[in-house]
Design a protein that fits this description.
Layout lengths: L1 H9 L15 E11 L5 E11 L1 H12 L6 H22 L4 E12 L2 E10 L4 E3 L4 E5 L20 E10 L5 E4 L4 E5 L2 E10 L2 E10 L5 H8 L6 E5 L9 E13 L4 E12 L1 H14 L1 H18 L3 E10 L7 E10 L3 E3 L2 E6 L15 E12 L5 E4 L4 E5 L2 E10 L2 E10 L5 H8 L5 E6 L8 E2 L1 H4 L20
Parallel strand pairs: 1-7, 13-19, 17-25
Antiparallel strand pairs: 1-2, 2-4, 3-4, 5-6, 6-12, 7-11, 8-12, 9-10, 10-11, 13-14, 14-16, 15-16, 17-18, 18-24, 19-23, 20-24, 21-22, 22-23
Length: 477
């Protein structure tokens, strides 16, 4: 959602004005008014005034008005219609559905180009039962806080003055909002100020970015800023709309005395159902054999890069001809699957199943992922180390890892479930102490494999081989 609001804020006109000349600089005044209703919908008004550089404003005005066989009024109407269509499409692509949209070129003077965009935006405020509050995101950095910056910096001076006026529903209880913030770097500055008047929050921000401001400068101004959110409570509970994500992963390794490993890897995709059906359609359009070969080639390259010798491999895609889960299965015959490190064989993997940073600042899906690993060692093997059992729960988010040893068979089961709306901090707390897991064992026979030192093995990735035809694109907010 932060991306959505940033798009709303910086979408504006698509002018070439940001390419300011050294003798002048880009200057803008921006106002975003949001009137929030009980159901989370909002009436939004965006007012943007471009105040410099004068030469670029004149060039833009000329490009708007100089239309063949059109009067000035017709040229302006054409421009307004094109920009309105661009706004509607861009906001829709960013996840904001709007109605009753208007776009007006309010001022077209040589030193002031002002546009006004209005719309009724559905579900502009999001309700999260996780915290039992509503959330609106505004971006006082105007997108510069997360913008990738080239090593040479941005080649122009920029001055932005912004105001966000958010009127909450009658009777709303304000929980949190952006507070005062100041950062400076050389001649560059970033200020945020805010105040509350009744049920209205007014946030102002000022950005002064010097010419060729380096990535170091942007980092100094924006890296610590994270106050993008307004939270409030009302007696009205909103409707939550999200997709569940559910996958199961299975790995079975049967290791022989001679070091040969028969490896079975299976991934089952259960949800989101619509996306899975789309995946099936794409596979059929590309050709099942072609996709199967791509899967094998990608992961054979990964195995070889880890120093694993592949003697045979095949893959199968199941579930393409009917609705339901999509299953991808691969079988390998391998050498050197487990690594010999200082006389001990080892296999390592990341048992978390989920990288919190993939989710942005808040989970936009309900996530349920599980992993089962079965290791069948040679009868003569002596087990040295297996993963310890773990059980964590934070506000209904759960993570478990259990290990069962039966003779020469090791079974590891891990699962993670994350509630819709869980913030990054809770997910990080759930998984932050889960470290890399190891299976270590010895066998009495002298191995013909390469005995690596601990330092050497550090450069070889853990060998949990997940086929992963598609990495689910988890929604980010």
């Amino acid at each position: 959602m932060r991306k959505i609001v940033s798009i709303l804020i910086i979408l504006l006109l698509g002018l070439s004005l940001v390419h300011a000349e050294a003798v002048d600089h880009y200057k803008e005044e921006f106002t975003l008014k949001i009137e929030v209703f009980q159901n989370g919908d909002a009436q939004i008004t965006v007012i943007t005034s471009i105040l410099g550089p004068k030469e670029k404003i004149q060039e833009e005005i000329a490009s708007i008005l100089n239309q063949t066989n059109m009067s000035e009024e017709e040229a302006i109407a054409k421009f307004e219609k094109e920009q309105l269509d661009n706004y509607i499409a861009s906001l829709a692509n960013a996840g904001i559905k709007t109605q009753n949209q208007t776009f007006k070129l309010a001022s077209i003077k040589e030193d002031n180009l002002t546009i006004v965009f209005t719309a009724y935006a559905e579900k502009f405020a999001q309700y999260y039962s996780y915290d039992d509050y509503w959330e609106i995101i505004v971006d006082p950095t105007r997108g510069y806080g997360t913008m990738p910056i080239p090593d040479t910096g941005l080649p122009q001076k920029i001055e932005l003055h912004n105001m966000f006026i958010i009127e909450l529903p009658e009777g709303a209880e304000l929980v949190d909002y952006p507070r005062a913030y100041t950062r400076e770097f050389n001649q560059s500055k970033f200020y945020v100020r805010s105040k509350v008047e009744g049920n209205t929050i007014i946030i102002t921000s000022d950005l002064y970015l010097e010419e060729n401001l380096s990535p170091e400068g942007f980092n100094a101004l924006f890296s610590e800023y994270n106050a993008f959110y307004i939270h409030y409570k009302t007696s009205y509970k909103g409707e939550e709309s999200y997709q569940p994500v559910k996958t199961e992963q299975y790995l079975k390794a049967e290791i022989s005395e001679d070091g040969t490993t028969n490896l079975l890897v299976r991934e089952i995709y259960f949800e989101p159902k619509e996306q899975i059906e789309l995946m099936k359609l794409q596979i059929n359009l590309l050709g099942v054999e072609n996709v199967t070969n791509m899967i094998l080639q990608n992961y054979l390259q990964g195995l070889v890069a880890q120093g694993i010798q592949v003697e045979n491999a095949n893959a199968t895609i199941l579930g393409l001809e009917k609705e339901g889960p999509l299953t991808i299965e691969a079988n390998y015959i391998l050498k050197n699957f487990t690594k010999l490190v200082n006389g001990t064989y080892q296999y390592s993997f990341d048992p978390t199943l989920l990288n919190p940073s993939q989710l942005g600042y808040r989970a936009q899906n309900a996530i349920n992922q599980s992993l089962k690993i079965e290791f069948i060692l040679p009868p003569t093997a002596t087990i040295i180390e297996v993963p310890q059992n773990i059980s964590n729960e934070i506000k209904g988010n759960k993570y478990t890892l259990t290990t069962l040893v039966e003779g020469n068979k090791i079974t590891i089961s891990a699962s993670v479930s994350v509630r819709y709306g869980a913030p990054f901090e809770d997910i990080q707390a759930l998984l932050g102490n889960v470290t890399r897991a190891y299976i270590r064992y010895t066998i009495p026979e002298k191995s013909e494999g390469l005995d690596l030192t601990t330092k050497q093995i550090a450069g070889i990735g853990g060998a949990i081989i997940l086929i992963g035809l598609v990495l689910f694109i988890l929604k980010r907010r």
